[in-house]
């Protein structure tokens, strides 16, 4: 398992750590960019740059992944908050992507609109539910840039790339 380079303090993290240890599952704490090629898809995996963040939020330790397949780039922003999102421009450089997995279940923060200007997504996937719905400010910001929005509260989302086209739909 490739994981963020930090130790959580919550119950869920402890359960995860106990489970992986008990089952002899190898864990790799990512402390520098890692690149992996699967067939003709390049995955770049970016760790958080800081050991601690000003807001103390564990979400800022999220690993961020870009998947490049021909002309298509997909950006998976984990649960990143504003401070972590600001790091990405320096880590990744060109943030433009066809599809973005919106950070932190579609929560709106001080950097959301800037993030969307930098990514210019055509498609956005928001991992949401009735319990954790996307914030309306985020949905409006995506609508303002004419981005097609897919919320997992409405069903599973499938994205298929042939290297040129990208088809996104509910399953």
Explain this structure.
This protein has 171 residues and is an alpha/beta fold. The chain is 23% helix and 29% strand. The protein has four helices and eleven strands. The protein has a seven-stranded mixed β-sheet, covered by helices on one side. α2 links the parallel β6 and β7 (99-101). The radius of gyration is 16 Å and the shape is globular. The model has no long low-confidence stretch (mean pLDDT 95).
Provide a short characterization of the protein structure.
The chain has helices spanning 11-22, 82-92, 112-119, 136-144; strands at 2-4, 28-30, 34-38, 41-46, 64-69, 72-76, 99-101, 123-126, 148-151, 157-161, 166-170. It is α/β, with parallel strands linked by helices.
DSSP strand count: 11
Question: How much of the residues is beta strand, in percent?
Answer: 25-35%
Unreliable residue runs: none
Q: Work out the radius of gyration.
A: 16 Å
Between the first and last Cα atoms, what is the distance in angstroms? 27 Å
Q: Largest sheet at a glance?
A: 7 strands, mixed
Mean pLDDT: 95
Strand order of the largest sheet: 3-4-5-6-7-8-9
């Amino acid at each position: 398992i490739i994981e963020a380079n930090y130790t959580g303090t919550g119950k869920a993290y402890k359960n995860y750590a106990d489970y992986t240890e008990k089952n002899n599952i190898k864990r790799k704490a990512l402390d520098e960019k890692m690149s992996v090629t699967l067939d003709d898809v390049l995955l770049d995996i970016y760790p958080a740059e800081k050991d601690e963040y000003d807001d103390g939020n564990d979400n800022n330790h999220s690993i961020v992944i870009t998947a490049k397949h021909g002309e298509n780039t997909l950006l998976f922003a984990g649960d990143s908050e504003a401070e972590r999102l600001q790091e990405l421009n320096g880590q990744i450089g060109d943030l433009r992507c066809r599809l973005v997995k919106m950070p932190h279940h579609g929560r709106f923060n001080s950097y959301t609109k800037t993030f969307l200007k930098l990514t210019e997504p055509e498609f956005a996937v928001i991992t949401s539910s009735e319990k954790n719905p996307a914030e309306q400010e985020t949905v409006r910001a995506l609508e303002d840039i004419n981005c097609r929005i897919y919320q997992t509260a409405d069903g599973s989302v499938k994205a298929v790339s042939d290297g040129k086209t990208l088809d996104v739909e509910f399953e």
